[in-house]
Design a protein that fits this description.
This protein is of the alpha/beta class. It contains 14 helices and 8 strands. 39% of the residues lie in helices and 12% in strands. Bound molecules: 2-acetamido-2-deoxy-beta-D-glucopyranose (NAG) (2 copies). InterPro entries: AB_hydrolase_fold, Palm_thioest.
């Protein structure tokens, strides 16, 4: 009887103190399972935290569906799928750390605000367009899906047709047409609580984070402005178009809880050397993995493992 109880206790404790699982969401033009991107990140994580459970988000039935979903679809629907997907994974039930790459980081923030069941502990975003982009990202040569995406946007980024089909249009913020953005963009104004009525759940969910780490690349030319990775945004002020987060009502009036996180020391602005998504391994390990992903003090109670 005593033996049985101590085994049960040992198992429960192991679960409670085990390494926090990690969820990845890839960027535009990429997919869940590319060995050179999310695969490489997973390998680095496992080389430092061998027992970490890592899940890479996939939308659709295949890797090619998933890549396609990064260009085409309705983000609000994709997020509902992701909420169901993450809720169905038993290993994530006690919460996880979320690592978002480029647009995937923005979408993980939206997951937290809209669902957050299971809950995110630390959110880390790499070059994610939190403040919106004021130029549709360029395509690499030979990327036909991306070229199709750009040609569709030419029909008018704030038309209902494009808004309901092109992902990048759903976080496009035209500095010279703020009204069009607020009224026609079906995703970003809502998720940034910029609409007429704000959603208090978005704020409380984001505030429930342990740490929120936003990384921008100092030579990013993919997202315009590159500081959108820190929530900065372009306005129609010709002399001084760039607004820092701290200068925006979104921060000052704390529409998303960012100011509160900042005042508590839970909001972090990092700069990574390099171009968009050129993540140096040293930077990843020293600035991200060790401080924010690796659980501290994973000391197992030795006594419980002794023979009874
Ligand atoms: C706020 O967002 C939550 C989560 O998406 C949703 O369930 C709720 O209906 C929203 N509230 C309002 C007033 O729109
Ligand atoms: C895309 O390429 C054009 C031409 O090189 C450049 O002017 C523009 O700034 C680029 N846009 C982005 C988002 O990189």
């Amino acid at each position: 009887m005593i033996l049985w109880i101590s085994i049960v206790v040992a198992c429960l404790l192991k679960e409670a103190i085990g390494q926090t699982p990690i969820v990845l969401w890839h960027g535009m033009g990429d997919d869940c399972c590319n060995p050179k991107s999310m695969g490489a990140i997973t390998e680095i994580i496992h080389s430092h935290i061998p027992d970490a459970f890592v899940h890479s988000i996939r939308i659709g039935e295949s890797e090619s569906d998933d890549r396609n979903a990064g260009f085409f679809g309705v983000l609000n629907d994709q997020l509902e799928d992701v909420c169901e997907q993450l809720a169905s994974i038993p290993e994530l039930a006690n919460g996880f750390h979320a690592l978002g790459f480029s647009q995937g980081g923005l979408f993980l923030r939206a997951y937290i605000q809209r669902c957050n069941r299971p809950n995110v502990r630390n959110l880390i975003t790499f070059g994610s367009p939190h403040g919106g982009v004021s130029d549709i990202p360029n395509c690499s040569a030979g990327d036909f899906k991306c070229a199709l995406m750009r040609s569709m946007v030419r029909r008018g980024v704030y038309t209902s047709y494009v808004q309901h089909r092109v992902i990048q249009a759903q976080y496009f913020k035209d500095p010279n047409n703020f009204k069009g953005y607020l009224e026609q963009n079906i995703f970003l104004p809502d998720i940034n609580n910029q609409g007429e009525s704000q959603n208090a759940t978005y704020r409380s969910n984001l505030q429930s984070l342990g740490q929120f780490v936003m990384i921008r690349f100092d030579q990013d030319t993919m997202i315009v402005p590159r500081e959108a990775a820190w929530f900065w945004t372009l306005t129609d002020d010709e002399q001084d178009p760039l607004r820092r987060l701290q200068e925006q009502a979104l921060y000052k009036e704390d529409w998303l809880g960012l100011r509160q996180l900042d005042e508590n020391g839970q909001l972090h602005f990092l700069t990574a050397p390099g171009k968009h998504m050129e993540i140096a391994q040293d930077f990843f390990v020293d600035e991200v993995l060790k401080p924010y992903l690796m659980d501290q003090a994973v000391t197992k109670p030795k006594l419980l493992h002794q023979p009874v």
